[in-house]
Amino acid sequence: MSAIPLVPEPTEALPRVRSNEGLLSWIATVDHKQIGILYLITTVFFLVVGGLEALLMRIQLAQPRNDFLSPQVYNQIFTMHGTTMIFLVVMPILIGFANYVVPLMIGARDMAFPRLNALGYWLLLFSGLLLYYSFVSGGAPDAGWFADAPLSEQPYSTTLGMDYYAVGLLVNGMGTVAAAINLIVTILKFRAPGLSLRRLPLFVWMVLLNSVLIILALPALNAALVMLIFDRYLGAHFFRAMTGGQPLLWQHVFWSFGHPEVYIMVLPAFGMISEILPVFSRKPIYGYGFVAGSTLAILVLSLLVYAHHMFVTGLGFTLDLTFGVMSMLIAIPTGVKVFNWLATVWGGRIRFTTAMCFAVAFPFLFSIGGVTGVQFAIVPIDKQLTDSYYVVAHMHYVLFGGTFFAVMAAFYYWFPKITGRMLSERLGKQQFWLMFIGFNMTFLIQHVLGWLGMPRRVYTYDNNPGWDIMNMISTIGAFILAVGVLVFVINVFVSLRAGKIAGDNPWEGWTLEWATSSPPPLYNFDQVPPVRSRRPLWDLAHPERPDWKHPVGHGGKDQ
Amino acid sequence: MIAASDAGKPEVDNPATATAEAGMAGLDRFAQLNGPVLGTLLFILSESVFFAFLIISYVYFRDSPAVANGPNAKSVLADNFAQTAVFTLCLFASSATIWMADRSFSRGNQGAFRLWLGATILLGVVFLGGQIREYVNLLSENITISTNLFGSTFFTLTGFHGFHVFVGLIALLIILILALRGQFRGQQHNGAVQSVSFYWHFVDVVWVFVFSVVYIWALF
Hints:
The structure holds two protein chains of two kinds.
Chain A: H1 22-28, H2 32-61, H3 71-105, H4 114-136, H5 161-189, H6 202-234, H7 247-264, H8 267-281, H9 288-302, H10 317-345, H11 354-377, H12 379-385, H13 389-419, H14 425-451, H15 467-498, H16 536-541
Helix pairs in contact in A: 2-3, 2-4, 2-15, 3-4, 3-5, 3-13, 4-5, 5-6, 6-7, 6-8, 6-9, 8-10, 8-11, 8-13, 9-10, 10-11, 11-13, 11-14, 13-14, 14-15
Chain B: H1 15-30, H2 35-62, H3 73-77, H4 81-106, H5 110-140, H6 149-180, H7 190-218
Helix pairs in contact in B: 2-6, 2-7, 4-5, 4-7, 5-6, 6-7
């Protein structure tokens, strides 16, 4: 522990805002649990907003030559959909879960820097408000979420949209880096006695590495945005080709951030799956060391592959080959993980709760996205399929079928801890099937549209053979998906009032967050159980056969 | 397959396991640092990446044909090299004085601590003054961020460095004021002094790169 009391204990009773007292306590809070909940509420709100934008796009694309949205509005909507989902939903929802769960999982009372933690959340919220204020100011950003120069430059983008994009993402990036620093210091310094780094729950381990990746990758985005702002406001020349600037520099700097970002959006999801599959299979994770080590390999490799987003810019044979090979290498540590998950479930006593359904769907859907991802590392295929709906299908399988399904599993898994009540399993199963069917209906068919040459980011298409039917199927799928999200929101509201009381450890989990009450008290733990293995609660429940006497990992069943 | 076990002895004969052990030991040592210092080091890591990209963009455009005829590094910076070098020495010297301040503080010598802290702030202000002077001269010759690519990259890179110096000065001032009011003593504040000290060294190290790439390279 640090020699410095980071939160000084008051010597006399101060007028204190309690965690259950009114709106002010939510605005002034520095408690990691409340901030975590704020993150989750905010991101679910933006999820609904981004989802509605997706529906608008799907309505426009349901028929050829549709005029539901004008081209200008369509550009704004797809840009805001991507930007919202990446910066206001996926990244912060993972940080939000980490914020709530990590201190509990390591037996800490709070984050290392509680006020910095609050700052991180408020920066997120206001970055979202800034981005959306652009609609009021005369036009949202319309150059796509990666804002390629020169499209994002003054002469091509006349509204204030791109300015809100640049400033909003700068604010967002600061909040994200602050949260990452906080998480790393918390994990390194505030672990319960006995919880060595080799005993970290895998979710905590992946949040740790993910935070390192955030710290290394986000500044590249900030550098690119700063140059863009200077170009637009101060008349600098970084990306302006007419005065010697280089639009390609934007792509280099942006994708130096953009590719690690893809892993920033998925590593904590890997961690969630690595927590949830073992608990509902009643087996310890298979090959802990390999799951942990392969994450490190992904971290290093993800920093070295960014230019595979730029094959069509004409990098030349040498760079094409280098980045193609490096990109394929990433599939190896990712594949290691998938096999570990399969081996964890294999032969287990599986309980198909809603959390488990989402967690089991994850490796399948993510692997489909992974396979199409490897195809994009093959340069000729990339040059053929890039900027087509094949890319759209690929990234949604990774980010929606992957990360988002993991996030849903995490919601069902940790909701009882957060609120003290269980989410309804009946509504949960309905939601799972609606989302599973809706998701595959929406995006599987887009692979075919991509092969047939339908370009992404174009507001309409001609009535080519089969395109109308396939697009209509995709649109119907999107609406089924939306009903699934609606069922989830209803489930949350219903269960908050009338859900089953959860108790401390409803899933019989083994990690420390289940050792405290649900919801946890302000100080998290009265007493942290002794940690002598990776499964402290298993040791507590089975004094006759604790892990630290009988090392696990040989694939044996328990219970 | 045998997962690395906690209870058993680590298998150090396997090179992969040995590497993992060494890495873990390194992380554990890193975790011995106190919280604020650890946080500051991570922040510095992040800022280093930011500056790396600004330096790359400067180098990328340095010999671009677009700046061959207009103002460029050689035509603008080479003549004033001696002046810049003097201000640079001030900044480098301030790294030594903050180190002395840090040492005095951890030895409990409050008087020397305040003195060295004051000296650091003074040297930082001199450096910043030098940079402002340089900017005023350039602006008076109509060389701005929008003149050409040299202006864009030069002002962005040195401007962000100057801004970081400015922020460092504010942090140093806060510590000095707290120290003068006697609210700042004892080992429990070591983290704050160390953090600001690390940050100040970082600002210095960035200038080593900026000075080399921008000013010294301009001579050739």
